[in-house]
Amino acid sequence: MRTRRLPAFLVSVVLFALGLMPNAFAADCIDDSIRSVTRDGEIIVMLSGSVFEVLPGDSIDSALWLPASDVVICMRSLNVRGTQMKYYEIINLDDKEKVGATRLR
């Protein structure tokens, strides 16, 4: 059975309008769903197979997230002492919370 999903662009526009995703662009974001979260909330596995390690301090929120929750994952970058660093914002559409993470695979 095929499920209907909103295009990432539309989800990004809605989240931006709600103030949950400032400075986001659709090209940087994808939609996915959670397959599993470790008890401590430090590792999130997505249905797509992507695995993320949640940044320290944010795992308090992600530990309460449930499998099958819909999320939007947005890639971000920072310039740290001349080096571009990538990280991800994972926004749980069910809980209206977001966490920072690094991608493991």
Write up this protein:
With 105 residues, this protein is mainly β. It has one domain (8-103). The protein is built from two helices and six strands; from the N terminus they run αβββαβββ. Strands 1-2-3-6-5-4 form a six-stranded antiparallel β-barrel. Strand 2 (43-46) and strand 3 (51-54) form a beta hairpin. It is globular. The model has no long low-confidence stretch (mean pLDDT 84).
Q: Give the total of beta strands.
A: 6
Give the averaged pLDDT, no decimals. Answer: 84
Low-confidence stretches: none
Strand arrangement, largest sheet? 1-2-3-6-5-4
Alpha carbon gyration radius? 13 Å
Order of helices and strands: HEEEHEEE
In the residues, how many domains can be counted? 1
Q: Can you tell me the overall shape?
A: globular
Task: Outline the fold blueprint.
Blueprint: H1 8-17, E1 29-37, E2 43-46, E3 51-54, H2 59-62, E4 70-80, E5 83-92, E6 97-103
Antiparallel strand pairs: 1-2, 1-4, 2-3, 3-6, 4-5, 5-6
A few lines on this structure:
The protein is mostly beta strands.
Features:
105 residues, mainly beta, 6-stranded antiparallel beta barrel, 2 helices, 6 strands, 13% helix, globular
